[in-house]
């Protein structure tokens, strides 16, 4: 994990007293093993959290689930209105209309999914506690289909920081932009649009009418957490709950402005993390006490003290 951090971000991290957003994320991956992170990271279990927090929110229906690819009805491999997923990682998605309806090809791929463990490959601890399962989910459609909007809402301590908005996400032609909680577009982009301006949403892009609903729902879903990304779909102005992300971009998320990355780090008060707020035994308890004192003594480590958390992103 540290090697990947240095290779992608270009400097050695301070892990024991993390200061930046990326250092705090690496610290979370190595040390802050909140049991709830397992539920958040499980694409099936997290649906129940959406339902409890926002009972009015629509969720894609689960049509089948199981742990053996051969048990899935083969009719789903030729159905246009479904998507097949695994619950224990990222990128485990099969769109029947985009692939041959060959059960053998699908089962080989599904077995590879089920044998993949992100806790070992990427250091994302929360995936270690998830029982791998396949599931078939209702596919959300917009009119036209390429107008499906994805909202990835970054929430610190129950307060929306900003939202990365996508069209055609998970394709080679995805477009994105970043907005604050009130729907104002910010002069900052994600790393993809920063390296290719053609991947930014057009300047006249209009947010879906359900954007404010998404901001409210994200704050409710993330209540009680120090940091969580809450994802939604918007189809024809109808909001659907999506997924919860504990480790965005495997902990190495960047954007186009260093000042904005600095603001992300300041917005995240790890004193409210599970490691520093729940009783800990042994070496974890000793380290937690030491770190709390170090953070109190060091204002430069930052913990959400700005009047405008988005200062640096505007």
Describe the structure.
- It comes from Thioalkalivibrio paradoxus ARh 1.
- Pfam families: ATPgrasp_TupA.
- This is ATP-grasp domain-containing protein.
- By secondary structure, the protein is an alpha+beta fold.
- It has a domain at 61-139.
- The protein has eleven helices and nine strands.
- It has a five-stranded antiparallel beta sheet with strand order 7-6-5-8-9, with helices on one face.
- It is globular.
- The two termini are 31 Å apart.
From the alpha-carbon coordinates, what is the Rg to the nearest angstrom? Answer: 20 Å
Order of helices and strands: HHHHEEEHHEEEEHHEEHHH
Largest sheet at a glance? 5 strands, antiparallel
Structural class: alpha+beta
Number of contiguous helices: 11
Percent helix: 25-40%
The shape is: globular
| Beta-strand fraction estimate | 15-25%
The total count of strands amounts to 9
Major β-sheet strand ordering? 7-6-5-8-9
Terminal residue distance: 31 Å
Mean pLDDT metric: 94
Q: List segments where confidence is low: pLDDT < 50 over at least 5 consecutive residues.
A: none
Pfam family, one: ATPgrasp_TupA
Organism: Thioalkalivibrio paradoxus ARh 1
Protein name: ATP-grasp domain-containing protein
Summarize this entry quickly.
The protein is α+β, with helices and mostly antiparallel strands and 314 residues long.
Q: What are the salient characteristics of this protein?
A:
314 residues, alpha+beta, 5-stranded antiparallel beta sheet, 11 helices, 9 strands, ATPgrasp_TupA, ATP-grasp domain-containing protein
């Amino acid at each position: 994990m540290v090697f990947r951090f240095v290779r992608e971000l270009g400097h050695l991290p301070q892990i024991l007293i993390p200061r930046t957003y990326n250092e705090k994320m690496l610290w979370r991956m190595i040390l802050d093993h909140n049991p709830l992170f397992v539920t958040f990271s499980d694409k099936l279990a997290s649906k129940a959290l959406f339902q409890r927090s926002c009972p009015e929110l629509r969720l894609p229906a689960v049509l089948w689930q199981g742990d053996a690819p051969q048990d899935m009805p083969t009719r789903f491999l030729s159905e246009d209105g479904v998507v097949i997923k695994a619950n224990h990682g990222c990128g485990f998605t099969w769109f029947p209309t985009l692939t041959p309806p060959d059960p053998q090809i699908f089962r080989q791929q599904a077995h590879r999914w089920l044998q993949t463990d992100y806790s070992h490959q990427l250091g994302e601890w929360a995936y270690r506690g998830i029982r791998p399962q396949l599931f078939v989910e209702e596919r959300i459609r917009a009119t036209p289909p390429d107008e499906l909007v994805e909202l990835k809402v970054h929430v610190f301590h129950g307060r929306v920081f900003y939202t990365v908005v996508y069209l055609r996400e998970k394709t080679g032609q995805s477009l994105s932009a970043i907005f604050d909680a009130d729907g104002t577009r910010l002069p900052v982009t994600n790393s993809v649009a920063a390296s290719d301006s053609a991947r930014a949403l057009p300047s006249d892009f209009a947010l879906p009418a359900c954007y404010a609903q998404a901001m409210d729902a994200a704050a409710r879903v993330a209540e009680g957490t120090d940091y969580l990304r809450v994802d939604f779909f918007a189809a024809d102005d109808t909001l659907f709950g999506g997924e919860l992300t504990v480790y965005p971009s495997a902990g190495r998320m960047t954007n186009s402005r260093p000042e904005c990355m600095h603001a992300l780090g300041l917005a995240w008060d790890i004193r409210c993390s599970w490691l520093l707020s729940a009783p800990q035994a042994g070496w974890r308890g000793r380290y937690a006490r030491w770190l709390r004192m170090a953070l109190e003594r060091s204002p430069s480590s930052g913990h959400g003290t700005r009047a405008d958390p988005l200062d640096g992103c505007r």
